[in-house]
Structures are given as structure tokens and as C-alpha cells.
Amino acid sequence: MRVLVQEEPFDFGREAQNFASGHSNMGAIVTFTGVVRDADKGGMDRMVIEHYPGMTQKALEKIAEEAVSRWDLGDVMVIHRHGELRQGDMIMMVATASRHRVNAFEAAEYLMDYLKSRAPFWKKEYTADGAEWVAAKDEDEDALSRW
Amino acid sequence: MDVLYFAWVRERIGIPKEKVETGAATVMQLVEELKAREERYEVAFSDLSALRVAVDQELTDFDAPLEGVREVAFFPPMTGG
Predict the structure, then answer these.
(1) Do A122 and B73 touch (CB under 8 A)?
(2) What residues does each domain of chain B span?
(3) How many CB pairs (< 8 A) connect A and B?
(4) How much is the pLDDT for A43?
(5) For tag attachment on chain B, is the N or C end more exposed, with fewer CB atoms within 10 Å?
(6) Do A92 and B54 touch (CB under 8 A)?
(7) pLDDT reported for residue A25
(8) Which residues partner with A32 through β-bridges?
(9) Which residue in the set A112, A118, A135 is minimally distant from B59, CB to CB?
(10) What pLDDT score was predicted for residue A143?
């Protein structure tokens, strides 16, 4: 299991390759990458992600451990950035390895659903009009109930 | 104990962290004490349904006991991913 909380960018290709090549008996590798998009109203200059340094790593590890306990996984990886990002930058990625694809897909979706609502990150969008905290969406909270 | 604020809660209260001497038995009692201090706390804590709380870096709820606790954090619903 690998959980990284970092300000600097990560190399998606290299991370995915390293993750996949480390697991020779896994039939399925799933990766998901979150990318910064424009603010809903448009015109975003930058995004700043605040986090809770003492808690973030532990919260992500707990989510990853829960995924490992629920699905038959060979490995899990989570990388999540904080600090200043711009449109098109990669915010985060998850990767799951399993002998079969259903486990790998489901576990990746589980990780994403929990990262959205249970990991202590807060996004703020800066546009020409000023800065606004991104509001949590009801559907993100609702998504947890399916697990 | 240390009390931490994040995102717009931090901005409304105006500081990221402070030491609080309190005899509050629960998070809710701590919130009431803070609200009684100054208007900025009253404003930040006016709608608890819009807030989340972590005690010693674990998510919990406003009924959580505070005995032996070192750190309480208040923040809005998280927006990771």
C-alpha cells in the first residue's frame, strides 16, 4: 500500500507503470486520475487545495485499508496533492491491483467516493471575481451509501 | 487543548489554530463556549449542519466527549478527489 500526500506534481505515467510492474500475478490494474477543471461559472485562474496535515495521511490510509479489507486486492496506491493548482493539472490518482477486474474497478470507485467526502481537503477556486470555496455536493455524500 | 480551523471556518474566525482552556465535556459544549466569546465565533458556528468536526484527528460528531482530548478541528464538508 502506498499513500502519498504532496504539494509537488506527480508523473502519472511513471507511477502507473511502477505500480503495474510490481504485481506480476495481478490480472487487472485500474487507475483513476483527477484533473483540475474550470470553475462551474468559468474563468478560473487557479485552485488552491487546503488540507489538515496531521490528519490527511491517516485518513487516506484508513480509506485504503478499508478497500483492501473489502476487496481481494494485491495492492492499492493513493496520491493526493494540495497547494496551488491550475486547470489541467492532475490533483490525485488512485490505483488498484487485483487478480480480477471487477474487484479492481469497484475498489477504485470506493476509494474515489471516500476521498471526495472523507479526506480532509478543501478546494478554493480563484477567478477574476474573487475566490470561492467549492461546496460539497449532496450526491457525493449520497454516493457513500452504496458501499 | 488545541483547536484548529480550516477553510472558510478558519477565514471567518481569523486564525488557523489556538489553545483553549476549557472544562467542556463534549464538542457541543466547546462550541457553545466559543460562540459566547465573540461574534466571529457566533457567525462561524451559526449552522452546525454546515460543519464537520474531528477529535484527535478522527472524524466524529458534535456529541463526542472531550475528556483527555488534545486536538479538536472544525471545518466545512470536505471536497477532496
Answers:
(1) no
(2) 2-75
(3) 69
(4) 92
(5) N
(6) no
(7) 87
(8) A94
(9) A118
(10) 87
Q: Classify residue B41 as exposed, middle or buried by CB count within 10 Å of its CB (0-12, 13-18, 19+).
A: buried
Q: Are the beta carbons of A101 and A28 closer than 8 angstroms?
A: yes
Report the pLDDT value the prediction gives residue A141, as an integer from 0 to 100. 86
How many other CB atoms are found less than 10 A from the CB of residue B51?
17
Between 3.90.1170.40, 3.40.50.150, 3.60.21.10, 3.90.850.10, what CATH number should domain A2-146 receive? Answer: 3.90.1170.40
User: Of residues A140 and A47, which shows the higher confidence score?
Assistant: A47
In chain B, the residue whose alpha carbon lies closest to the alpha carbon of A59 is: B58
Q: Mark yes or no for CB contact A52/B80 under 8 Å.
A: no
How confident is the model over A84-123, as pLDDT tens digits? 999 999 999 999 999 999 999 999 999 999 999 999 999 9
> Judged by CB atoms within 8 Å, which residues 40-59 of B form the interface with A?
54, 57-59
Identify the DSSP state of A11.
-
Fold of B2-75: Ubiquitin-like (UB roll) (3.10.20)
pLDDT at A24 over 90: no
Element (H, E) at A17: helix A12-21
Helix crossing, A53-70 with A101-118: angle to 10°? 150
Using CA coordinates, name the residue in chain B closest to A82. B80
